[in-house]
Amino acid sequence: MLQTGARMRHHAAMNIAFYAPLKSPDHPVPSGDRLMARQLMAALELAGHDVDLVSTFRAFLPSSDMDDGPRASNAEQDVERIAGLWKASGRPDAFLCYHPYYKAPDLIGPALCRRFDIPYVTIETSYSHRRNIGRWEDAQRHVLDGARLAAANICITGRDHDGLKEAAPQVRLARLFPFIDAAPYLALTPKPEEGRLITVAMMRPGDKLSSYRALAAALGLIRTHDWRLSLIGDGPARPEVETAFAEAGIADRIDFLGEKTADEIARLLSCSSIYLWPGHGEAYGLAYLEAQAAGLPVIAEAVAGVSEAVVDGKTGMLTAPGDIAAYADAIIALTGDDNRRLKLSRNARQMIADRRSIGAAAIALDRILKTATGNRT
User: Fold this and answer.
1) CA nearest 250: which of 212, 217, 208?
2) pLDDT the model gives residue 89
3) 104: β partners
4) Can you list the alpha helix ranges (DSSP code H) found in 90-226?
5) For residue 250, which phi and psi values (nearest 5 degrees)?
6) pTM for this one?
7) Among 51, 99, 239, 241, which residue has the least CB neighbours within 10 Å?
8) Mapping DSSP to helix (H, G, I), strand (E, B) and coil, where does residue 192 land?
9) Residue 47 pLDDT greater than 80, yes or no
10) Is the model's pLDDT at 3 over the cut of 50?
11) In the chain, what are the domains?
12) Helix or strand run (H / E) with residue 16
């Protein structure tokens, strides 16, 4: 398996233009979306390709009734800027857009690909008929236009695959597992502290706060059991998160650690026993993969795209959506059964090393791109 830093050697290296309309890889605010964009670029480079971040234009429209102002004209200006550069220095071999969806369609790639006659490829395109409301309806037309144009739409979740297939049956689809750069986690030897639970998640309104409240409620049901939770993360909803744990009567059992560096998170994970995060609204959850690479079984809800990252009964436990008692019972069951916890831990670590590493993704992406673009030499 390829490891970070060991580029694949072949004679078909491609020049790839990369763009992420929701959040550029160099955006200052961390998130799973930014991390995946960075990892995709790293995987493509690991596969031996040259990757150019061609635009940092953000097409994000958070509300369906919000005026999009100069968004379209700004996108057109960026198209002309990039076109001028390509005319002067040569066009790329392909244009790859990461995560176009109803809030952030690709307003740049399709126009350039048609003008310069180069292959267009998307990763994690998402489409839902339910989002055809207000200004998002126009955004969804752009999403489908790009999907139909694409030589390949690389789907990271089965949900996105099925949604695209239903909306546009003729689109060209491929699958890629969610992945991480697992090396920093696999390099550490797990030394789990008995009863030490851990969560890593930003504190913001919406699905994240909903998950925190569900977690607090579940832990509140097992106050008499022996456990302690390390909580890594911060954000604008921190007061509401602290309130949730206080109202559950367990504030004194929570270690609020705030934001940590990637190395610090890896070390803290390796010293913990179980990773907890309900996962409301998660597309798949890169933090689940990081925890499993560090040797932690995961307890989550069987919601959204969580099952893309956690294998129920093999690398963790998935409970019924919204069933707080079942989630609490799962924590009790796993904290009280070391043999089962250790088995899930070994399985989780092995799965990441074998199938969810950046090396595995580099090989898969290289194969998909060469097939889609006809570059098979």
Assistant:
1) 217
2) 95
3) 101
4) 109-116, 134-149, 158-167, 183-186, 207-220
5) -130, 20
6) 0.85
7) 239
8) coil
9) yes
10) no
11) 15-179+357-373 (3.40.50.2000), 183-355 (3.40.50.2000)
12) strand 15-19
Question: What average pLDDT does range 201-227 have in this prediction?
Answer: 96
Nearest to residue 52, comparing CAs of 22, 13, 10? 13
Render the burial of 263-286: b for 16+ CB within 10 Å, e for the rest.
Answer: eebbbbbbebbbbbbbbbebbbbb
Query: At CB < 8 A and 24+ separation, what contacts does 190-193 make?
Result: 190/270, 190/294, 190/295, 190/296, 190/345, 190/349, 191/270, 191/271, 192/271, 192/272, 192/273, 192/295, 192/296, 192/345, 193/271, 193/272, 193/273
Lookup: tokens for 271: 């010293």
Extract the tokens encoding 292: 């499993």
Residue 6, pLDDT > 60, answer: no
Cα separation, 136 vs 145, in Å, equals: 14
> CA-CA distance, 195 to 186, in Å (whole number)?
22
Query: How far apart are the C-alpha atoms of 235 and 319, rounded to whole Å?
Result: 27
Structure tokens, 182: 């697992």
Kindly provide the residue ranges of all beta strands, DSSP E only, lying in 292-357, ordered along the sequence: 298-301, 316-319
